[in-house]
């Protein structure tokens, strides 16, 4: 997992071409764009704009085998629970959706505007958790195929 500030994107130029391209997308102006999926390189690189109300908890972290998630809050704030797969128990798997749900111990990080998190296939994550009281959150999730 990488947790950092948008101000440091250039630090990751050499990490992986598509991941760097996905990070650079976070510098875009998303104002006026509707929630939904936006293709950049078909299924290899795309992003989703999402608006929702954060919840008191998210007890089922997820992980993806084929994609790296890059998540960045545009407005509002949320906590994301993160944990290593080897410390969690699998609950349910949806291979056709590249989604597996888990249970187990998580650490929380605060995701606020200007910060991003890169989540690898070994990083389970439970997003959408309220920081304090539930509230509105507008987020960009970039999906980068790595398989």
- Mean pLDDT, rounded to whole units? 96
- The share of residues in helices is under 10%
Strand pairing plus helix content: what structural class?
mainly beta
Q: How many angstroms separate the termini?
A: 17 Å
**H/E element string?**
EHEEEEEEEEEEE
**Which of globular, elongated, flat, extended, rod-shaped describes the shape?**
globular
- Major beta sheet, strand line-up: 1-10-5-12-3-2
List keywords for this structure.
single chain; 147 residues; mainly beta; three-stranded antiparallel β-sheet; 1 helix; 6% helix
Structure description:
With 147 residues, the protein is mainly beta. 6% of the residues lie in helices and 50% in strands. The protein is built from 1 helix and 12 strands; from the N terminus they run βαβββββββββββ. It has one helix at 17-25; strands at 2-5, 36-39, 45-53, 62-63, 67-76, 78-84, 89-94, 99-103, 107-111, 115-119, 123-129, 136-145. A 6-stranded antiparallel sheet has the order 1-10-5-12-3-2. Strands 4-8-7 form a 3-stranded antiparallel sheet, with no helix packed on it. A 3-stranded antiparallel sheet has the order 9-6-11, with no helix packed on it. The model has no long low-confidence stretch (mean pLDDT 96).
Structure, briefly:
The chain is mainly β.
Secondary structure layout plus pairing:
Blueprint: E1 2-5, H1 17-25, E2 36-39, E3 45-53, E4 62-63, E5 67-76, E6 78-84, E7 89-94, E8 99-103, E9 107-111, E10 115-119, E11 123-129, E12 136-145
Antiparallel strand pairs: 1-10, 2-3, 3-12, 4-8, 5-10, 5-12, 6-9, 6-11, 7-8
């Amino acid at each position: 997992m990488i947790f950092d500030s948008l101000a440091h994107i250039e630090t990751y130029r050499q990490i992986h071409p598509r991941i760097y391209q996905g990070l650079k997308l976070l510098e875009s102006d998303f104002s006026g764009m509707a929630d939904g999926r936006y293709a950049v390189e078909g299924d290899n690189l795309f992003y989703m704009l999402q608006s929702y109300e954060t919840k008191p908890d998210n007890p089922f972290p997820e992980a993806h085998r084929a994609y790296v998630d890059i998540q960045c809050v545009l407005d509002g704030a949320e906590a994301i629970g993160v944990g290593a797969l080897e410390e969690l128990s699998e609950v349910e798997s949806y291979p056709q959706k590249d989604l597996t749900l888990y249970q187990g111990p998580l650490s929380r990080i605060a995701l606020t505007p200007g910060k991003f998190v890169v989540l690898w296939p070994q990083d389970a994550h439970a997003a959408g958790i309220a920081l304090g009281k539930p509230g509105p959150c507008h987020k960009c999730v970039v999906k980068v195929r790595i398989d």
